[in-house]
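Quick question about two entries, pasted in order.
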Amino acid sequence: MAEESPEIIVDQDWKARVQREKAEAQARQQGEAQPSEEEAAAPPAEAASFMTLVSSLAAQTMFALGVIAPRGTQEVVIDLDEAKYSIDLLMILRDKTKGNLTPQESGRLTATIAELQQVYVARVQQMHESALEGGPIHPRDLKQP
């Protein structure tokens, strides 16, 4: 089996949001009252913060599931308890914010939870199969879900 490098997804949209926020702050300092159409259409800063939180918890879960290897190493450590805890946190976040999210935020959160749950179930099955075979699990043997 050929080694595949883990796929890392980076949200580049935050840079554009930061630039818009800086422009808005400068406009307020200069006394401009009307934001541009692009600024008015931009999601509020709270949306960016919320999605950053979701992305952070998702990345933490992917590390715990061994999907993403720590930088500078080819070895992964699977911590199913940590992964379950992180998924549970996301589910609590979904439940506590119900009705207060935009449809995009709600959809992204639900999709993230579903994807992480699928990977979690696949890892649990792999761990059980390995335990039945009586051997240790090596990162190179892990199937990418």
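Here is the second entry:
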Amino acid sequence: MIGRLRSLKTIDTLPSRRIFQAIFALEEAGGRVGFDEVNGRLEEADQNLLAQTVLNEDGEISREKVVAAVESMQRSEQQNLRVQLKTRIKELDRAGKFDEAIRLALELHALERAPRGRPA
């Protein structure tokens, strides 16, 4: 799951982004990815956020819930990308930059043909 999370640009916009960055760094270094290891890499504000998240859970989170959450994030990210591409295509069309608009339209078409939840 860490690899799938790492590919999401959305992670960089979350308040918990530094927690994810710590997880990614630990995983990349081949270290154990546990609460203490992640917590030890964080500043106080992020430690508090991590602790709050862990304490608010009613026990262990199942793999199925994690997979569903990651897939939901992937779908949201793809939808946002589609909206951004459509907006940019309209802007380029209005500006008379037809070659670039066509290139982005092809990119949009490929994205829309890709199975939902999976990158094109």
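Reply: The helical segments are 2-6, 17-28, 35-39, 44-56, 63-94, 98-113. The chain has six helices and no strands. Hope that helps.
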